Design the sequence.
């Protein structure tokens, strides 16, 4: 076993918050500390999984708090942990401990994405059949018609399937809001393209009960209230292998939930050159 995984007994008792190192030395000298039922010598080191007791009382290290972040991803950042990609999201955030994104948001898009070190919640959220809502504000290159809104909400044939009914609301001449419970590859962009529109800006503003409220390129920790509600919403989720591909199952229509976004500009947006999307650039 690597020496990096070993901790001197007095330091161990100090790090878990039981007592100071000096007090720990005294307890060890008095034979009041045991490791796996045996009285250790001074300087003995503790290995992961060892049972440490003081006066017969089991010493349990405090549970490590998981990290849950809400990050406002800028355009151009890739939702991957691969260090070979110079614009990977993990290096961009540079958080002091290992974290990974929950789902994806394609490279040309911006907005809310959650990151964590809790694999269980990742698996729960990624299960599309749990009907977890994701809300977006989308700007397109043409005037939005009533027919466009109606057809987007009713379902669009893409990727050998028909998208599920969803909530769509026009906000201005070129801007609409959409709430999805699916995570098909570049779903919103493909839906718009089918109807002859091109997305020139896509921003995710909500994932379930978590709303985007930080500037572009910044993150915040989720609040206790948000985590409690998130736990409730994902309580019935089925765990899967991390990063597994999910197959959407049948689901009811989304419940109506309206927010008050800032009034978008009525100015016609500039056209962007259509680009080929890489395999890893997808929405979720």
Sequence:
């Amino acid at each position: 076993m690597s020496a990096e995984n070993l901790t001197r007994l007095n330091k161990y008792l100090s790090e878990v918050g039981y007592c100071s190192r000096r007090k720990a030395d005294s307890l060890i000298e008095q034979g009041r500390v045991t490791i796996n039922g045996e009285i250790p010598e001074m300087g003995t080191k503790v290995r992961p999984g060892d049972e440490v007791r003081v006066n017969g009382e089991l010493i349990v290290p405090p549970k490590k708090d998981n990290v849950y972040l809400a990050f406002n991803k800028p355009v151009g950042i890739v939702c991957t942990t691969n260090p070979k990609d110079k614009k990977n999201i993990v290096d961009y955030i540079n958080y002091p401990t290992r974290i990974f994104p929950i789902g994806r948001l394609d490279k040309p898009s911006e907005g809310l994405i959650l990151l964590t070190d809790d694999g269980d919640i990742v698996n729960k959220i990624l299960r599309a059949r749990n009907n977890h809502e994701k809300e977006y504000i989308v700007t397109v290159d043409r005037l939005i018609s009533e027919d466009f809104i109606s057809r987007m909400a009713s379902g669009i044939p893409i990727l050998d399937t028909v998208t599920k009914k969803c909530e769509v609301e026009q906000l201005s001449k070129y801007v609409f809001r959409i709430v999805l419970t699916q995570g098909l590859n570049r779903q919103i962009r493909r839906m718009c393209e089918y109807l002859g529109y091109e997305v020139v800006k896509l921003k995710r503003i909500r994932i379930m009960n978590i709303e985007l409220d930080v500037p572009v390129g910044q993150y915040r920790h989720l609040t206790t209230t948000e985590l409690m509600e998130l736990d409730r919403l994902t309580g019935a989720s089925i765990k899967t292998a991390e990063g597994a591909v999910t197959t959407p199952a049948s689901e009811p229509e989304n419940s109506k939930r309206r927010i008050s976004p800032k009034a978008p500009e009525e100015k016609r947006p500039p056209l962007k050159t259509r680009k080929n999307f890489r395999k890893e650039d997808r929405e979720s």
In short: DSSP finds seven helices and 16 strands in the chain.
